[in-house]
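To: structure desk
From: M.T.
Subject: fold request, one chain
Message: Could you run this one when you get a chance? Sequence is below, nothing fancy, just the single chain.
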Amino acid sequence: MSGTFRVDVTKDYLAFSSAHFITFRGHKCECLHGHNYKVAVAVEGGVDDEALFVLDFAVVKAIAKPMVDSIDHKVLLPTRNPKVAIREKGDRVEVDVFGEHRYLFPLRDVATIAIANTTVEMMAEWFAREMKAKLVEAGHGHLTLLEVTLEESPGQSATYRLTLP
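Reply: Done. Structure tokens follow.
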């Protein structure tokens, strides 16, 4: 008989509050608005021969918490969206959307993310890909699946599954 194990990490402190907009013309979420997001992480794989666990929960938390902290209380800006132009001007960030809407934010209040749009789907994928890189770098090659669920409000979430290694 063969199988795999799964561990899930859902902690109250893996949450962040951020503002964003999406670039779908005429959609109500086109305007700047915010959410109180929650991150949940699951990994699958065989158990370690010595410790007999898939992955120490502390490893997942040590990777996810700094990522959450880096975007908490920030305006999230997608760097891979052709409809959004982002320019740093000293201690400010100027954002031009569709060539029509302009925002000016203090640099310290902005987090840029290498995604095409700040939808919950794209952000879940970003979390998963960043976490995968850190897990591989740390030598956790026995894992077979990484899953990140990002909730933007109660009852509304997106999940991204990434096959490992």
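Reply (cont.): Residues 7 and 42 are 5 Å apart (CA to CA). Let me know if you need anything else for the meeting.
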